[in-house]
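Quick illustration, no need to memorize.
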Amino acid sequence: MIKLAKYLKPFFHGLILTIALLFGQAICDLNLPNYMSEIVNVGIQQYGIEHAAPDAISPNGMKLMTTVMTDREKQLIDENYVPVSGTEYNGGGKAYGRVYPKAGARIYVKKDVDEATNALLDRTFGTAAWTLMNVTQDMSGQSGQAHPGNTPAEVKDIDLAQLYQVQTVLDRLPESALNAAHEKAPAGDGSILRQSGIMLARAFYGELGADISGMQTACILRIGLIMLLIALLGGLATVLVSLLSSRIAAGAARNIRKDVFNKIEGFSNSEFDRFSTASLITRCTNDITQIQLLLMMGIRMFCYAPIMAIGGVLMAVNKSASMSWIIALACIVLVGVILVIMAIAMPKFKIIQQLVDNLNLVSRENLSGMMVIRAFGTQEHEKKRFAATNEELTGTNLYVNRIMVLFMPMMMLVMNGISLLIVWVGAQQIAGAAMQVGDMMAFMQYAMQIIFAFLMISMMFIFVPRAAVSAGRIAEVLETEDAIVDPPNPKNFNVAKKGLVEFRHVYFRYHGAAEDALSDITFTARPGQTTAIIGSTGSGKSTIASLILRFYDVSKGHLLVDGVDVREVKQKDLRAKIGYVPQKGVLLTGTIAFNLRYGKKNASDREIETAARVAQAMEFISENPEHFDAAIAQGGANVSGGQKQRLSIARALAKKPEIFIFDDSFSALDFQTDIALRKALKEHTGSSTVIVVAQRVSTIMNAEQIIVLDEGRIAGCGTHKELLKNCPQYYEIASSQLSQGELA
């Protein structure tokens, strides 16, 4: 997988932008539960009142609260509250009398303070609320320890008139009694103190005639609008991340596919012997698709999931450190589930791609060999062979899917179990006034975000193994060293020896073979002459043609074209000199004209018509209403074998090369067409070197030079008549094809 990382380099800036957007998306998602907690805690439970220290308080309220404060707390209040009249205006441009219609001639308002000072004021008023409650309980003869069920935080309606009645009693209380009540207030938990103070603050706002319902609505709307804005920003980031990741994945896959195709284009026959065609097709399509899918999903999940997991843990612990053990338990269970399932499923992922290769191989053989299968009546056998391969792939996929299908139910079980545990533990903490309902809800959402982050990470374990196998298969193709390469300092062809082909003691052995396919081959094919090569099946005729084209390199000896060893020139320059017609005519999808111009793009209409006429193809081309614009189906399926051969010959002729190689290219032609074609060919090729590999003696009997091969060695060389006298192998072949009169 790392070997293919270089394909992400062109998209580096896009990756950086995507990661930045993912951070933004994660921050948005992590903040939503926080604001939801504020809506519940502040907007609903606290009636929109954010601070225990009220923004405004009546003189009676101020006197009541400062009575139960220490000297330091009183000093803090004096520094941050100022007396104002109802006719004065607040920072919003409204008269205090309008904001607080029931206020008297004078009220105390809080200055514009920072968050730190606000927190101190909230704690001060909260402590005062607890002190006041403890004092009143002591005065009524109750226990000095406040019961959770009677905390100020749980008192919904406070009658200030009754509290004001005890002001005179509070004024006469000794300072020691007030200090004792003050010390009973919770020392560590600022949340409880703030909630207690807020209940009194609500009563003070009510005393002044403030619109508490409006404050609550405004608070909910304000937080709701912030949540909506955050959700929109997160949604925009999600869309942009999806767009960028898709473009990066598609671009990387395009570049990989291009490089793999270019690499395959440069393969010699040795590499094609190593990789099957079906496997190469799978690697160019299915394997690269696996990489693209991983990149598209991985760019989002690899960055987003860890941010959400770590951020969710930090946020959850910040909401309630005492419940952090629940998050730790969830993480341990999730990691255990992922490891167990992946340990079972991962080995199977490595097998699936090989089985896809096998299925493609069987499918390709069946489709390409359909006529042979029907001719021998083996359809049932092939159906069983395909079914067996298909069943093996299906069975492996089903095995993996059965394992993976357990994953989601187990995740849901963990998720619901954690939710129940949070509710159970959180409810106890809420009952003890140690946590607010909104905080518990936010903690639950963070827990779900953490679980979903692990779910996303686990999803990557599904994609990564398959993509890793695919990446290895792609890297195997890209890292394959070509057996045929251009020399670092290529030579130029010798113009004086134009068209000359020389074999000098050439030996050749296929990779992995025990014996040489060709041994000590020495001959010269000259311009203006036809050199024919004949021999029994497997004698090495087509191998000689492949060596000239440098589809393989000779094992020993030298093969020269235009006086230069073919290993010392560029492959492109070498093949530009050769017009090659293979044993099996290969046509490409397009028109007849497109196929004939394949070797020479700028060939004129007259040139391709001449080539078609020499190849005896004009007969069937002229019968078609579209002539040269007639369509050729994939693989030339809509033309006969003879027509395909003639078009292949015409394609080579249109190129006008120095050297023609006809590798048994007349086998599908009838005798009459063969004779006419050879006659026209002799006139057309002129000074070109013609090398003909043939099975028919009648095709080559007029050649200036005939090479007879026998088990990879030259058994004879000469003209037709010379070989009949001097070469038993040639005579045996000729006698099997010609009459006694023709042999004379």
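Confidence is low (pLDDT under 50) at residues 142-150.
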